[in-house]
């Protein structure tokens, strides 16, 4: 299948990437716009107890990352990627609009989670088809796409959060639904710039050549190490995923948000994370590139351990602040600094972990390995919801100490896995080297 020939856009990339970029931006806008309001809506409008609201939030965010495991199979085997994006996005938009009815609250959450299951794996899987195999732009395509994700996450709390907080919850939810429809419109109208949609029939076998098989013991070791990392990341997310849960509650009741004569809307702080991702990513990438040229770049597991430790440090800072400040009097700058530290830690662990899973996926099991990474997000979101139920019972200071311990434990476990991770990465590099030698040898024999 040849990539569509459709010229280049402002990034020097195929126009199809712009279509996918903007579709993803608006989908992220809709999802995070609704999520920015969710805990507040449950506790202030529906009058759920804090423990119940935190658990529902955790179950919802967990389900959002579980349904793509099933949705990806449905997309590949039956619907095709384009139909899956359109159907999934339409169901998500319906869910956002259903949030206008309090009696349909749980149906709305279910619709958004189910629609996301079809949408999430089907949109980015079209990126590779935009490029020829030797196109040098392929490597930067995912970086551009990731900016689209965070652009939507940046705009969501500023628009949906502000509307919901100042003018009424349903205005914010309605804006999220309109954002999803905007993304669908861009996707449908830009369809001519996207690669041809191909479904793999059930029972078919991929005939492409595969790399040489690893010895059974080496494959077993690789699977065990990746599974261990997934479980540790699950633990880490128990602390990280508090951003839209208990951290959102603390920004409402524990922080003095006055700035001159203006009170900063509580949802605006949730825009700091995507803004900082966009700002800090090129800085860290440039730093790691310089380290790699000197042969001094830290191994993946060590980076991830540093990231978890950074997030633990962010919570430790909040524990001190909440212990010293009077209730409701912590300066908003402390919350802003928390997001700086949290995002820096995130960039050391989450993108690095995803790359590690993609790089070390056993031959023929790439999708399953990436699904394991999504499953870690699913389990971590559940854990975050469970941990969040302790917020009212133990109070902010003790809760932040607990989150510090959770993140620090994940950091220690990742550091202990450093040696095993470096060994399987070395095996992977050696296996690729042997594959290249075998390919060259086969080509020479065929030429003879």
Automatic annotation (TrEMBL):
Q: How does it sit in the membrane?
A: Multi-pass membrane protein
Q: Which UniProt keywords apply?
A: Cell membrane, Membrane, Peptide transport, Protein transport, Transmembrane, Transmembrane helix, Transport
What is its subcellular localisation? Cell membrane; Membrane
State which residue ranges cross the membrane: 55-75, 105-123, 144-164, 170-190, 223-240, 260-285, 306-326, 332-358, 370-391, 397-417
Keyword Aminoacyl-tRNA synthetase (UniProt): no
Q: Please verify whether the record's keywords include Transport.
A: yes
Residue ranges of domain Major facilitator superfamily (MFS) profile in the record: 16-422
Name this polypeptide is given: Peptide MFS transporter
- Write down the species: Lysobacter stagni
């Amino acid at each position: 299948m040849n990539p569509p020939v459709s010229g280049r856009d402002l990034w020097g990339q195929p126009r199809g990437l712009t279509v996918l970029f903007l579709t993803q931006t608006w989908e992220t806008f809709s999802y995070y716009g609704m999520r920015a309001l969710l805990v507040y809506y449950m506790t202030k409008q529906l009058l759920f107890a804090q423990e119940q609201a935190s658990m529902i939030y955790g179950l919802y965010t967990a389900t959002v990352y579980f349904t793509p495991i099933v949705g990806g199979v449905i997309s590949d085997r039956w619907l095709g990627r384009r139909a899956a994006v359109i159907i999934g996005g339409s169901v998500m938009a319906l869910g956002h609009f259903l949030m206008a009815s309090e009696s349909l609250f749980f149906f709305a959450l279910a619709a958004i989670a189910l629609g996301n299951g079809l949408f999430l794996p089907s949109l980015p899987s079209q990126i590779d088809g935009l490029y020829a195999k030797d196109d040098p732009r392929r490597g930067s395509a995912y970086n551009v796409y990731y900016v689209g994700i965070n652009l939507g996450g940046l705009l969501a709390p500023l628009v949906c959060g502000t509307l919901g907080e100042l003018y009424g919850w349903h205005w914010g939810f309605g804006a999220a639904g309109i954002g999803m429809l905007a993304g669908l419109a861009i996707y449908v109208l830009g369809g001519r710039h996207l690669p041809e949609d191909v479904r793999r029939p059930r029972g078919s076998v991929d005939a492409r050549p595969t790399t040489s098989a690893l010895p059974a013991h080496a494959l077993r070791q690789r699977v065990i190490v990746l599974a261990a990392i997934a479980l540790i990341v699950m633990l880490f997310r128990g602390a990280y995923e508090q951003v839209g849960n208990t951290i959102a509650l603390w920004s409402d009741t524990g922080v003095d948000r006055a700035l001159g004569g203006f009170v900063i809307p509580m949802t605006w702080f949730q825009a700091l994370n995507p803004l900082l991702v966009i700002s800090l990513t090129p800085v860290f990438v440039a730093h790691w590139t310089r380290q790699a040229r000197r042969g001094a770049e830290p191994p993946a597991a060590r980076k991830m351990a540093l990231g978890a430790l950074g997030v633990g440090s962010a919570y430790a800072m909040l524990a001190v602040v909440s212990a010293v400040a009077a209730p409701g009097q912590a300066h908003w700058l402390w919350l802003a600094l928390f997001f700086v530290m949290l995002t820096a830690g995130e960039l050391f662990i989450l993108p690095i972990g995803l790359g590690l899973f993609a790089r070390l996926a056993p031959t023929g099991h790439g999708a399953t390995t990436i699904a394991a990474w999504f499953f870690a997000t699913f389990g971590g979101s559940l854990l975050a919801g469970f941990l969040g139920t302790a917020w009212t019972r133990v109070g902010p200071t003790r809760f932040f100490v607990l989150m510090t311990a959770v993140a620090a434990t994940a950091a220690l476990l990742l550091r202990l896995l450093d040696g095993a991770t470096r060994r399987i990465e070395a095996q992977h590099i050696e296996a690729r080297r042997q594959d290249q030698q075998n390919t060259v040898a086969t080509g020479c024999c065929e030429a003879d």
